[in-house]
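Incident review: delayed structure delivery

Summary: a single-chain prediction request sat in the queue longer than the usual turnaround. Root cause was a stuck worker, restarted by the on-call engineer. No data loss occurred. The affected request and its eventual output are reproduced below so the record is complete for anyone auditing the incident later.

Affected input:
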Amino acid sequence: MRHQRCLTIAAILLMVSLSACRIEDPRGIAGDQPEPFQESVMGTNAEIGPILLRSVHVEAPPDPSYQTGDDAILWFTALNEGRQEDTLTELSSPVADAVVIRHDDDCDGHAEPVPALPLRPVEPHPNASSDGVSPFAAYHGQVVDLNRQVMAGTTIPVTFVFERAGPITVDAFVQPSTAPRPAPSGLCHGSSAAAATAPTVQ
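Output delivered after worker restart:
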């Protein structure tokens, strides 16, 4: 009888333990919102070779969705962990006519279209060039002329092409408008507070 009672208690404790694990893991809760709708998830992270892409996301529309023909801002941070400079040569997406690289190279608060974005190594080799932008310079992408409706909380594919590392396609979150924007995308080091605001899209 005592052996049977011990087995029963052990079974109850095991069930409670498993139940607690399910409660702690939100992915196990029925009816939980899918990951793209969670505001706590800040964009998408990816990497190709020594290039790390962080917080890749499209700024959410003021309304529930972008309409055909609308433009949008693509925010991202690119870190070059290699020993040599690499260059972001192209951005593109099948849901848009174009994705333009924009950079506020003179910290005046206006990001201009650029044909490419050189990326300085985070820790350059002594013999490597120190040219290019830092990971936290004021740059972003402008998604031009969407060819379909894009809802907040979904993703769109964006292809990044690097001169050395090659191409990589990332599913960029269309973040809810209440989600905070990562600071690196809007910083302009060494500039005044007025110039350090997020670049203006023209």
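Verification: Residues 88 and 162 are 4 Å apart (CA to CA).
Action items: add queue-age alerting; document worker restart procedure.
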